[in-house]
Structure formats: C-alpha cells, structure tokens
C-alpha cells in the first residue's frame, strides 16, 4: 500500500510555534470570531457574513478610491486608471454576492428580522464614505452617526475634499477651461450638471485621438458608475423580493426610498453627452 503523502518531506513548514502563520498574518481569530448571531435561526449567519464581506470589499474600495484620486490630483493619470479598473471589479464582486443572499426567502428572513432592531445598511459609514468620495454628497446622511463623533469627523473630512469627479473635472479643465462655479463649488454639496462641462466632455468624445487620456478617464468613470448602478438595482430588487413594500428597519419607506436612489447620477454630464454625439 502506498504511504499517504506527507508535504513536510518536501519542505512544507509544519511548526509555527515562534513563526508567523497564515492565521496570524490575516488576524483570522478576530475575523472569524465576529459572526455574532442574535438568534438561533439558520439564515442569520448568511445575512451577517454577506454584510461583513460587503464591508470588507467596501474597505478596499475606499482604499483604491483614495489612491486613484491622489494619482489624478498628482497628474499620474495612467496610474489612476489601474485603480479605477480595480474599483469596478470590486463592485462586480459586490454585485455577484447578491446571488448568494437571494437564496434567502421572506420566511427565512422574517424569522430573525425582529432581532435587527432599527439597525440598517442605511447606517453603513463605509457605504456613505464611498458615496461622498464619488460625489453624491448630502449632509443629512451624517445624522445617523451622531452617536459616533469619530465617524462624523471622518465623513466631514471627506466632505471637505474634492470628490473623484471634482478631480476628473480638474484634469478636464487643463484642456478645456471650465467656469469658476464648477471648479470652486462648495465641496460639501453634490456637483450640479453644467453645460460647459458637458460641452467639454462632448469634445473629448468627438476627438478621441487628441484627448485620449481624458477619453479613457471618462470611460473608466462611466464603467464605475455602471457597476454602482447595478449594485443599487440588485439591492432594491433583493429587498422587494425579501420584504416587499414594508418600511425599512432604518425607518425609510424601504423599496420606495431605494427606488428614489436609483435616480442618483454620480457623473451626470458623462451620461448626458451621449444623447448629443
Ligand atoms: C435581505 C437583505 C436586505 C434587506 C431586506 C435590505 C433592506 C434595506 C432597506 C429597507 C433599506 C432602506 C433603509 C431602511 O429604512 O432600512 C436599506 C438600505 C441600505 N442597505 Fe440594505 N438590505 C438588505 C441587504 C443589504 C446588503 C447585503 C447590504 C450590503 C452592505 C446592504 C446595504 C445597504 C445600504 C448601504 C443601504 C443605504 C442605501 C442608501 O442610503 O442609498 N443591504 N436596505
Ligand atoms: N433595512 C433592512 C434591515 C437590513 O437590511 C439590515 C439590518 C442590519 C444590518 C444590515 C442590514 N442590511 C441592509 O440594509 C430591513 O428593513 O429589513
């Protein structure tokens, strides 16, 4: 009979008494001890892991968005492209995750929904930070965090910085002078569509040879918003499938609130220009 294979004979390390192991490097003890269920229903574990993994991907999305924005500000546009591509892939990952959650029926969910109290994704500070970073800025969204001043400070800090779109518009303004009200708008508010911005982006799309970098930047942003829209759509569809038109635990109208959010445009002129090309 052949002996079972022993990888240590081929050099695999088996002793981690004073060495960094896989679990040490990844802090797996903290990570895998954070799935605290509040009921003994079967699907609560799925619900928690779905949200925790989404929050982890959002953490990376924030990291990549910050880096992409810094590169663009620094004129390192090509480097920013790599991060923007990765950002879209992260959203793709978040989008695929809905397929797992969709297996949870209304009966499965109502078994533990009461345990959630008034908690809701509406209070996700990382999600709000991503919205703020990309340019969807609404100071009213700071309020659910008022019991955590450090989170309010983090979000306020974000509102004081130019958004991803602001930085793209600064890059655009190097080739097409843009009005002061566009370049020096109040940063804590959402950018409002402006005809001069649309005219400039339209010119980029009409003469791609001359403006190739800006054209590529525009398409990376459209890609990103496309994936983000799919996330919103997957969310609202899953919510309707699971709770119908009930009010949300966070207190909003639920599906009606989420449908309203489907109308958000992060990079409006990049969508509007397509009609006139
Ligand atoms: C069965 C699953 C889910 C249901 C029934 C659900 C339901 C809702 C509802 C009703 C809202 C509106 C706010 C409220 O009044 O509560 C909301 C908001 C939100 N949910 Fe979910 N959700 C689910 C899964 C998820 C997942 C997996 C995530 C991923 C992190 C998520 C993230 C969010 C975020 C970020 C918001 C705020 C959206 C915004 O302000 O535009 N939700 N959810
Ligand atoms: N708003 C949801 C609850 C909910 O989905 C939720 C609750 C706690 C932690 C994350 C959640 N996910 C997304 O909103 C509901 O009304 O059922």
Automatic annotation (TrEMBL):
Superkingdom of the organism of origin: Bacteria
Gene Ontology MF annotations: heme binding; L-tryptophan 2,3-dioxygenase activity; metal ion binding
Similarity field: Belongs to the tryptophan 2,3-dioxygenase family.
Manner of cofactor binding, per the entry note: Binds 1 heme group per subunit.
Source organism (scientific name): Parasedimentitalea huanghaiensis
The protein's assembly and partners: Homotetramer.
Pfam families: Trp_dioxygenase
Keyword Heme found: yes
Any GO BP: L-tryptophan catabolic process to kynurenine
Pathway(s) per entry: Amino-acid degradation; L-tryptophan degradation via kynurenine pathway; L-kynurenine from L-tryptophan: step 1/2
Catalytic activity, EC: 1.13.11.11
Lineage of the organism: Bacteria, Pseudomonadati, Pseudomonadota, Alphaproteobacteria, Rhodobacterales
Binding site for heme: 235
Protein name, per record: Tryptophan 2,3-dioxygenase
């Amino acid at each position: 009979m052949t002996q079972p294979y022993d990888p240590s004979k081929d050099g695999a390390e088996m002793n981690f008494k004073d060495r960094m192991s896989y679990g040490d490097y990844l802090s797996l003890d903290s990570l895998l001890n954070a799935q605290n269920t509040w009921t003994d229903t079967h699907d609560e574990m799925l619900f928690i892991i779905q949200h925790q993994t989404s929050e982890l991907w959002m953490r990376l999305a924030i990291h990549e968005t910050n880096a992409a924005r810094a590169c663009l500000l620094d004129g390192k546009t090509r480097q920013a492209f790599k991060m923007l591509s990765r950002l879209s892939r992260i959203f793709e990952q978040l989008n695929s995750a809905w397929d797992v959650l969709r297996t949870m029926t209304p009966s499965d969910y109502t078994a533990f929904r009461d345990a959630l109290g008034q908690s809701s994704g509406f209070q996700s500070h990382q999600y709000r930070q991503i919205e703020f970073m990309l340019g969807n800025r609404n100071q009213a969204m700071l309020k659910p965090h008022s019991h955590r001043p450090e989170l309010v400070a983090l979000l306020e800090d974000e509102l004081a910085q130019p958004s991803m779109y602001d930085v793209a518009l600064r890059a655009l303004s190097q080739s097409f002078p843009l009005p002061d009200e566009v370049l020096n708008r109040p940063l804590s508010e959402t950018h409002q569509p402006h005809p001069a911005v649309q005219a400039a982006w339209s010119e980029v799309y009409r003469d791609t040879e001359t403006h190739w970098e800006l054209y590529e930047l525009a398409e990376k942003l459209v890609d990103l918003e496309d994936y983000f829209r799919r996330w919103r759509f997957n969310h609202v569809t899953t919510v309707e499938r699971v709770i119908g038109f009930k009010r949300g635990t966070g207190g909003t109208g639920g599906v009606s609130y989420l449908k309203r959010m489907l109308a958000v445009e992060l990079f409006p002129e990049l969508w509007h220009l397509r009609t006139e090309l």
